[in-house]
């Protein structure tokens, strides 16, 4: 049996082995986001709309000298680059999220590694066509992801191997080129979930003309995102926000993200934080 087949068999046993239980408060709180991603026409339309808008904008951006990222250099004489996140941006992992809800599990490195080994994530609507068009226009596509390199005896980075295989099956460009991928811990200086250092590496050799992601961390340094969520954006972050829909494109992800860090862990404790109308106490009579 091939190593990839063995890995897939182990992954299936790990994922199938989790016992079901009565739904927890957390599981119930995740249902709508996962269901919306998997079944709603609106998710498909929103993702496709973002990628079609990005496709339309790309030719002009390639000809310009404007930078999509805060990490930049001299634009002239550099190849254009389109930088994309992977999870929930080009690959749809809602099947893993559905498994977690149905088995009352939370994200865990072991089960996540098992899911990656299956190499069965679907493409986010519009992602394949967009990246293929970017390649045809002469832009180098980079996949910057916080999937983590955890070495094994037979593979220095199984997450890279599985990600490449998954993208190759779906027809994404540069899937065969390890240089197109930048994973967390792939290099010592990429140990953080902050993607700034990886964007800086790309900016040394390429002109970053577009960023695509599902989380603010795909566009800004982690500390800038934290200040932004507190309502205290720095000048660079504030300026960058004006570029969404121009050279920055956000893919909707209602299931998880850095936005959760600003919320109580207990979903029930989030209810009082919701903002209702100040002038209305909930009276139903005229």
Which key features would you list for this structure?
12% strand, 42% helix, alpha/beta, two-stranded antiparallel ribbon, Rossmann fold, single chain, 10 helices, 286 residues
CATH topology of the domain at 53-92 and 121-264: Rossmann fold
* N- to C-terminal distance: 72 Å
Shape: globular
**Main beta sheet strand tally, sense and closure:** 5 strands, parallel
Let me know the number of strands: 7
What's the helix count?
A: 10
Spans of 5+ residues with little confidence (pLDDT < 50)?
1-10
- Average pLDDT, to the nearest integer? 90
Instruction: Write the CATH homologous superfamily of the domain at 53-92 and 121-264.
Output: HAD superfamily/HAD-like
State the share of residues found in helices, binned by percent.
40-55%
Briefly note the structural class of the backbone.
Answer: alpha/beta
Tell me what you see in this structure.
The protein is α/β, with parallel strands linked by helices. It has a domain at 53-92 and 121-264: Rossmann fold (3-Layer(aba) Sandwich), CATH 3.40.50. Helix content is 42%, strand content 12%. The protein contains ten helices and seven strands. The protein has a five-stranded parallel sheet, sandwiched between helices. Helix 1 packs across helix 5, helix 2 (25-39) crosses helix 3 and helix 2 packs antiparallel against helix 4. The longest helix is centred in the N-terminal third of the chain and has 23 residues, at 41-63. Residues 1-21 form the signal peptide. It holds the Pfam family Acid_phosphat_B. Keywords: Signal.
